[in-house]
Design brief:
The protein has 28 helices and ten strands. With 716 residues, it is α/β, with parallel strands linked by helices. The protein starts with 48 loop residues before the first helix and ends with a helix. Pathway: Glycan metabolism; osmoregulated periplasmic glucan (OPG) biosynthesis. Keywords: Cell inner membrane, Cell membrane, Glycosyltransferase, Membrane, Transferase, Transmembrane, Transmembrane helix.
Length: 716
């Protein structure tokens, strides 16, 4: 085996720029933040923000009060029962949730048709502004397919190059990858990207060898080491793509508004191939703007952060967003999982404005391909959002920031509440079926009191609830009809209407399954189980049918038991619950059907569930497709040990990117010690591959001594 240095380039290899350290103190949640001279109300806050919030929140409260009164009228007038009180309390909590979504959507519809959703001097079209400050694009990755990650970066780089302002941007791949084979592929893909686009000195790569605190720790480590050289940073996900024009306009807005700490775009879901992904893609593209315009309208300068596709003022982030560990053990204690909400809240606490700009297009992401993949991701998000219970008492938070966290918690707590509401309704029907009614009670009356549930009032409550629940979709469809480009992109008014109907019907069948998944997640977290850190799958979503049957059999069984119980109580109750029961009983074929790529592409060929990004594909997405099709990464063995032996230049770069060797007194890496012993005792490379565990393999690849031992081993 030749030594790697023989074919290595003569100039020294630099994977990262010189360090520019920036202090990022850990915040104290028990004391107010240092405002650093900034006022409580940002200069970019709309002058009518108080009226906006009163109209949205006040209308939601009024709707909830009216719905509660109507529900009370439905209940038996003979007296108050425990189950009746529980039913009413649950109805108020759940109706408030959908009422706020409704009033916010109405505001969003008005803002959308009035061509709002911008602000901060941002324009969607026209000449690009000239930038004077530097911006870093940060792409954290964790065991993701390197080919897709690099293709996205290449598309962004090419799009930035066309703006003529590439010199204002540097790109960083921040790896937390633990799979050693993926790690070495990342390095090979990084080197190939640099060579392809001439990105030396502008495209950088760093892998953390101790990936503490997950994504928040990954970004925080970059801020502390390199943040001092950049005025702004754009956070990306592994599946993020943003156009160069969008990035330039965002950076210009930060330069012209020194009090703004963060600008969040509205990422559009693209690239869906399975039916489930296409449903998510259509819903996000058609209904998403109504919701986003609404919350941007009444959130004002107290917006939220979704963790990616946003630009952040680096020094504002460093001074305010150093996350502490919350007391206790996981799942509620430890480092903060859903860091983005908390980082935005802490920055706003420090006086920085947080804005969402939903009208600025050119920001894209992908959707998980199946309900199973969403459930895996949702389990982690559920834990992170419930953990915010311990962050809510933080001193000095703006009340809207607290509301973001309450809404995030409610997104998961409402699922078990819906389930309890459903079961309570069955129990009330069961009680009425078996309990003997009291016609006179303790008071002597001339006429008996007939206990009853008013069917007319019940019908009105049901119709009203459905109107509030489905109105945002109707408003989104009307907005689509009023936008010629959107109308054409969705296949025309008739196909768009059919798509809304298909999405509503299939989404309604999936909803009870998702309710049980989230309920089981909440119960698991409350019982003390940590979510871990799982890699998100981004392929076509194909899952063997027997695996689907194994995972969803319990939902089918629950649906059968629930249906049998409803039938025993009352056939009318059974038919009333049919929409819920159908989704549960047929959960196995439903999940298999929606996870199918062929079914999803069949809907696309029929012109259903179309989005404008498919019919008129944006330039940056065309660049992404081209980059994926023209992968120029050298073909190497899948095994990391053999890949380093096969490519001397890659091996030399790998060695150059390794951290400094351990010194006496440094923490001991047990996996590395055991792995080195196994390498020394192995007589061949094949034997070493068999004996090393995944963690030991990654550990020895992080040691120069380990790489040297690998290079010296004979093949057989």
């Amino acid at each position: 085996m030749p030594e790697p240095s023989k074919d290595a380039p003569s100039q020294p290899f630099e994977a990262m720029p010189p360090e520019a350290r920036l202090d990022m103190p850990v915040q104290n949640l028990r004391t107010p933040a240092n405002m650093e001279g900034r006022g409580r109300t940002p200069a970019t806050s709309p002058s009518s923000i108080v009226l906006r919030r009163l109209s949205v929140i006040g209308s939601a409260l009024a709707l909830t009060a009216y719905g509660a009164w109507r529900t009370h009228m439905v209940m038996d007038e003979a007296g108050v029962s425990a189950l009746g009180v529980i039913m009413l309390v649950l109805f108020i909590a759940l109706f408030m949730w959908i009422a706020l979504a409704f009033t916010s959507s109405v505001a969003g519809f008005c803002s959308l048709v009035a061509h709002g959703g911008l602000g901060l001097g941002i324009r969607r079209t026209g000449p690009l502004p000239e930038l004077t400050r530097r911006t870093a694009l940060l792409l954290p990755t964790y065991n993701e397919p390197p080919h897709r990650v690099i293709a996205g970066l290449r598309a962004i780089y090419s799009s930035l190059e066309e703006t003529g302002q590439l010199d204002s941007f540097d790109l960083f791949i921040l790896s937390d990858t633990t799979n050693p084979d993926v790690w070495v592929k990342e390095e090979a893909a990084f080197l190939a990207l640099r060579e392809q686009v001439g990105g030396h000195g502008r495209i950088f790569y760093r892998r953390r060898h101790n990936n503490v605190e997950r994504k928040a720790g990954n970004v925080g480590e970059w801020v502390r080491r390199f943040g001092g050289a950049y005025d702004h940073m754009v956070t990306l996900d592994a599946d993020s793509v943003m156009s160069g024009q969008t990035l330039v306009r965002m950076a210009d807005a930060m330069e012209r508004n020194p009090g703004v700490g963060l600008i969040q775009t509205l990422p559009v879901i693209v690239g869906g191939t399975t039916l489930f992904a296409r449903l998510q893609q259509f819903a996000g593209r058609v209904y998403g703007p109504i919701i986003a315009y609404g919350i941007a309208w009444w959130h004002g300068a107290e917006g939220n952060y979704w963790g990616h596709n946003a630009i952040i003022r680096t020094r504002a982030f460093a001074s305010q967003a150093g996350l502490p560990h919350v007391p206790g053990k996981p799942p509620f204690g430890g480092h903060i999982l859903s860091h983005d909400f908390v980082e935005a809240a802490l920055m706003r606490r420090g006086g920085w404005a947080i804005h969402m700009i939903p009208a600025l297009d050119g920001s894209y992401e992908e959707s998980p391909p199946s309900l199973t993949d969403v459930a895996i991701r949702d389990r982690r998000w559920c834990q992170g959002n419930l953990q915010h219970v311990k962050v809510l008492p933080t001193k000095g938070l703006h009340w809207v920031s607290r509301m973001h966290m309450v809404v995030g918690i409610g997104a998961y707590v409402t699922s078990p509440l819906w389930l309890v509401f459903l079961l309570t309704g069955i129990l009330i029907s069961l009680q009425a079926h078996f309990q003997r009614p009291e016609y006179f009670g303790d008071t002597k009356l001339l006429y008996p009191h007939w206990p009853h549930v008013d069917p007319v009032q019940a019908k009105y409550v049901f119709i009203g609830t459905m109107v509030v629940l489905l109105a945002p979709k109707l408003l989104a469809y009307i907005a689509l009809l009023l936008d010629p480009q959107m109308r054409r992109g969705a296949g025309g008014p008739i196909r768009a209407a059919l798509s809304v109907l298909v999405e509503t019907l299939i989404g309604g069948l999936i909803a009870p399954i998702a309710m049980l998944i989230q309920t089981s997640g909440v119960i698991s977290i409350l019982s003390g189980h940590d979510s871990g850190w799982n890699t998100q799958r981004r392929d076509d979503g194909g899952i063997p049918f027997m695996e689907v049957a194994r995972q969803y059999a319990r939902f089918t069984l629950f649906g059968l038991v629930l249906g049998a119980g409803a039938w025993v109580v009352s056939p009318s109750l059974f038919f009333w619950m049919t929409p819920v029961l159908l989704g549960l009983v047929f959960s196995i074929p439903l999940v298999a059907f929606t996870s199918s790529r062929s079914v999803g592409l069949g809907f696309r060929r029929s012109g259903l569930l179309l989005v404008p990004e498919e019919t008129e594909e944006p330039d940056v997405l065309l660049k992404l497709e081209q980059a994926e099709a023209q992968d120029q990464t050298p073909t190497l063995p899948d095994d990391a040990l053999r890949a380093l032996r096969a490519d001397p230049v890659l091996c030399q770069a790998h060695l150059a990117m390794l951290p400094a060797e351990r010194h006496a007194g440094d923490p001991i890496n047990a996996d590395q010690l055991v792995g080195l012993v196994k390498l020394e005792e192995a007589s061949t490379l094949s034997e070493a591959e068999r004996r090393l565990s995944v963690k030991e393999k990654a550990a020895v690849l992080g040691s120069r001594k380990g790489v040297a031992l690998i290079l010296r081993l004979p093949e057989s």
